[in-house]
Amino acid sequence: GAFAKDEQIDLAYRYIRPGYTIQVAISDVVPEIAAVVHTLVSVDDKNLKVLAGLHYDIQKAGIFQLELSLPKHLRIVTVVGEMIDDWKHDADAGTLTVALTTKTEGRYDLFLECERSIDDLLVGIDVPAITTVNTKKETGYIAVHTPASIRLRTDPDKQEQVTEIDVKDLPPS
């Protein structure tokens, strides 16, 4: 017949007599990206180190780059992932753009290491938030580690859109 079985057919119509009209709208397929971000923040007397694992699920269309938002005061130490062509950190805008060598779909894992110095630990610190840009859904976990000589407490007045969980409820990663 006229319809090839191996071709993808998106729409189909039936008509009874000539004189019909059909109008279709055409648009690009937009990627749908979900991400789970696992962040480990390590704090000592003078430094704060952030290790982040970003686990993407890219559906419907492939992408050639990933964009992240991160606090302006963080210095990027390493960016690791498959098929990375280049990456650019715009410290003033607080963005990181990772260019990939090829169009990427499905599962993609990206790992970052960042750091910054701490001037006065006693005034408290903001836990840095590394977040994805242009994702439909993002969830994540943040774990904080300190040496035994430092005690951490959550400041309830500076906590938004997060829920404290028991350490044993962290996923293995």
Q: What do these coordinates show?
A:
- The chain is mainly β and 173 residues long.
- Helices cover 0% and strands 48% of the residues.
- Strands 1, 2, 3, 4, 5, 6 and 7 form a seven-stranded mixed sheet that branches.
- A hairpin with a 3-residue loop joins strand 1 (32-43) and strand 2 (47-69).
- The chain is elongated and about 85 Å long.
- The protein starts with 31 loop residues before the first strand and ends in a 28-residue tail after the last strand.
- The model has no long low-confidence stretch (mean pLDDT 90).
Q: What distinguishing features does this structure have?
A:
mainly beta, 0% helix, elongated
- The H/E string reads EEEEEEE
Instruction: Give the helix tally.
Output: 0
Radius of gyration equals 23 Å
* Distance from first to last alpha carbon: 53 Å
pLDDT averaged over residues: 90
Into which percent range does the helicity of residues fall?
A: under 10%
Uncertain stretches: none
**Overall 3D geometry?**
elongated
Structure, briefly:
Helix content is 0%, strand content 48%. With 173 residues, it is mostly beta strands. Strands 1, 2, 3, 4, 5, 6 and 7 form a seven-stranded mixed sheet that branches.
